[in-house]
Amino acid sequence: MPWVKDFDVEGAVGCAMRVFWAKGYQATSISDLVAAMRINKGSLYNAFGSKQALFARAFLKYDRENRQASLRKLEAMDEPVLAIRTLFDSMIAESEADTERKGCLLVNTAVDLPNQSDEIQKLVKSAIEDLERFFRRLVEAARVRGEVRPDIDSSVVAKSLVGQVVCLRVLARGVFDVSGLEAIRSQALQRLGA
Q1: Whole-angstrom Cα distance, residue 128 to residue 133?
Q2: Are 117 and 142 in contact (CB under 8 A)?
Q3: Of 30, 77, 155, 179, whose Cβ has the fewest other Cβ atoms within 10 Å?
Q4: What is the mean pLDDT of residues 105-112?
Q5: Which ranges constitute the DSSP H helices of the chain?
Q6: DSSP 29-68
Q7: Confidence band (pLDDT; 50, 70, 90) for 194?
């Protein structure tokens, strides 16, 4: 008799995503997942195949609902420098509201990249490269509009901004207070020469 799913798969992936986000892949046990997803172990394996496959699906859900959705809204703004500032402002506000100090699942996973599967490594690298392209497009648009120095190297600045995003996300997990995070934002904006 074929196995029949008797639970909301996407809802279960969302529950798993929150567990992975709070604990990280390595520290998350199958028991943690089945408790959060409110399914049994057999259903987890039948629906997703493995913890690793479930993590990949949860990671993609997080990336789609957080990073990709946010970047789409920011890129639609008419002012590229303001869009970059808004991104840093929103990260600071999210960090301030994050009482559990979960941080960002993408950055948390990137920090632990050597311990991730090849599939997850590719997903993380792709997301980071997409973030870099986002910054490069905004810097180039700002240069065309005369909002930044005309000699600015959009590729170098984009890489620097990605580094400052990662730095802010890591240090926001309990090392820096808001004033420290604001200093990172200030440095990012100074890098633009705006």
Answers
A1: 9
A2: no
A3: 179
A4: 94
A5: 9-23, 30-37, 41-48, 51-63, 69-75, 80-97, 105-111, 118-144, 154-171, 178-192
A6: -HHHHHHHHT--HHHHHHHHSSHHHHHHHHHHHHHIIIII
A7: low
CA–CA dist 33, 20 (Å, integer): 9
pLDDT at 3: 42
Q: Kindly give, in sequence order, each residue whose CB lies less than 8 Å from that of residue 145, ignoring residues fewer than 6 positions away.
A: 80
Predicted TM-score of the model (pTM): 0.88
Q: Assess contact for 131 and 159: CB atoms under 8 A.
A: no
In order of 24, 30, 73, 103, 184, the CA distances from 27 in angstroms are 6, 10, 33, 16, 29
Structure tokens at 190: 């100074």
Which CATH number describes the domain made up of 59-192?
1.10.357.10
CA 49 to chain centre: 24
User: Residue-wise over 163-180: b if at least 16 C-beta within 10 A, else e?
Assistant: ebbbbbbbbbbeebeeee
Confidence class of residue 43 from pLDDT cuts 50, 70 and 90?
confident
Q: How confident is the model at residue 4, as a pLDDT?
A: 43
Confidence (pLDDT) at 65 = 94
Look-up of token digits 């941080």: 103
